[in-house]
Amino acid sequence: MTYILSVKEMKAFHEDGFLIVPKLINQEDVQELLDHTVDIMKGQVTVPGQIDPPPSDATIEEIEQRYVRIHQLHFHLEIHERYLLHSRILDVLEKLIGPDIMAMQTMLFLKAPEQVGQGYHQDSYYIPTRPDTLCGAWIALDDADEENGCVWFIRGTQYEPIYHDAQNVSHDDVNLNGLGKIAAKYPDNEVPAVMKSGDVAFFGGHVIHRSHSNESRTRFRRAFVGHYANARSWTHWGAPLDECRNNNQILARGNTHLPYAVSKFGQNKKRI
Questions:
Q1: 144: exposed, middle or buried (C-beta count within 10 Å: 0-12, 13-18, 19+)?
Q2: Which domains does the chain have, with CATH numbers?
């Protein structure tokens, strides 16, 4: 069923730099991804060089701690491409950064109890697009709150430039992280993205954000994250500045004058 973004939601995204859409993904889809994370941890899903079976004598705790996050599995696994191109995610993105959408990246966060977070960073620091239209879509698979290491966004930082020269970006020590001084300009604007399973947070590539360690003893904080941009933005991501890499990005909706990739698993023809 098509999701129609409201004027209030559009306003919130542009004023805050992020938007949480409750219950955008149904629980059947969420459960499929949760079951998939268990299969990964148990070694029932393997991708050479990225996901290997655990040692035969590994304890449950060791199995759960094997991965914090895994990148770009949509190049190898149908389920990751399918959720990267989920129609309700694209419905929202079409209004926020579209109508032409390219799908660029996937990350699967497993974040078991006591696993670490990630310090202040801006996603466009890592994934450049010109003009900069990058937007993340963070699907909560588990309920996420302060105890188990939810994401924290800093309102207003969507208007900050990308700090390409910042040192130790993503370091969890704010005194070492070059974005710590920028974050300090917004002392009352950092808010936890408390989310229920199936909620989705959309956030622009300039927004400074971080997460803390999972302090829970029993709860995971699993999430499936996709990154997208307007399909008419140019990217050299992963290559020298003068090279175009749009041909590696899936055209998820609309059209473009730039090169693009098509779905490896035929998801452009399917809607979930």
A1: buried
A2: 7-49+58-269 (2.60.120.620)
